[in-house]
Design brief:
252 residues, mainly beta, two-stranded antiparallel ribbon
Length: 252
């Protein structure tokens, strides 16, 4: 699990991973002490058997992997008692790895050769690391961009001002222009997440909402009432259409 802060800069992790490793008692062979073998009597140690099959063109010799020894040329005469002849045992392995900046939720990272050991020899499998992103309490991720929904009070939205907003690197101040309408988006360049390929960084998009007071005192009510019908306070049709066009995406 990674936080947005960890994803923004990349992080080194060390984990204990339950896995199958080569049995230390038989060196992964599955035979007692790693030596309890005999030559396969089916293939005589070659690992290959030859059969004769009849076809339209006559008798043909066909070679295949020996089914008795599975191509090894030898069979176990006495199994390892620690792994029951499997050649692997269960163990918690400590694995250290680096997660690059900008990874996304559900992305899979592959560590070659760090997976389970193959029974009775062979190459190890891979360890697959699936990224799980922890939900941020205030910020929303949209690709490499970060989204924050900002609730403004009526005076600041009308007259403009300076506010503090959260970012993935801490809190930052941003300027609110006068006459900022609900639904407007303000952009903070470079405040998003880096791309995993190292090219470019996203932005932080601040969506504006405006709080309409619910409980006003008489003085505040009178102040707002004094604005009723004033020029510039009541929107005309052009202003309505312009604002609704910006909010259309909310209802679609």
């Amino acid at each position: 699990k990674l936080t947005l802060e960890e994803i923004a800069k990349g992080v080194d992790k060390t984990l204990k991973v339950p896995t199958y490793v080569k049995c230390t008692h038989c060196d992964g062979t599955g035979a007692k002490n790693g030596t309890a073998f005999a030559t396969c009597s089916t293939c005589h140690g070659t690992g290959i058997v030859t059969t004769v099959e009849q076809s339209f063109f006559g008798a043909q010799q066909v070679q295949s992997v020996c089914p008795t020894c599975e191509g090894t040329g030898k069979v176990i005469t006495e199994r390892c008692t620690y792994c029951n002849g499997e050649g692997v045992e269960r163990k918690d392995e400590t694995v250290s790895f680096s997660i690059p900046a900008g990874v996304q939720d559900g992305q899979t990272l592959t560590m070659r050769g760090k997976g389970n050991a193959a029974p009775r020899g062979g190459a190890n499998g891979d360890l697959l690391i699936v990224i799980e992103e922890v939900k941020h309490p205030e910020l929303i991720r949209d690709g490499n961009d970060i989204v924050y929904n900002l609730m403004l009070d009526l005076p600041t939205a009308t007259l403009g001002g300076s506010v503090e907003v959260p970012t993935i690197t801490g809190r930052a101040r941003m300027k609110i222009p006068a006459s900022t309408q609900p639904g407007k988006g303000l952009r903070m360049r470079g405040k998003g997440l880096p791309s995993t390929d190292g090219y470019g960084t996203g932005d932080e998009l601040v969506n504006i909402m405006v709080y309409i007071p619910e409980n006003l005192g008489q003085q505040e009510q009178a102040a707002i009432e004094s604005l009723r019908g004033k020029p510039g306070v009541t929107p005309d049709e052009s202003t309505k259409n312009r604002i609704f066009s910006k909010l259309r995406h909310i209802f679609e």
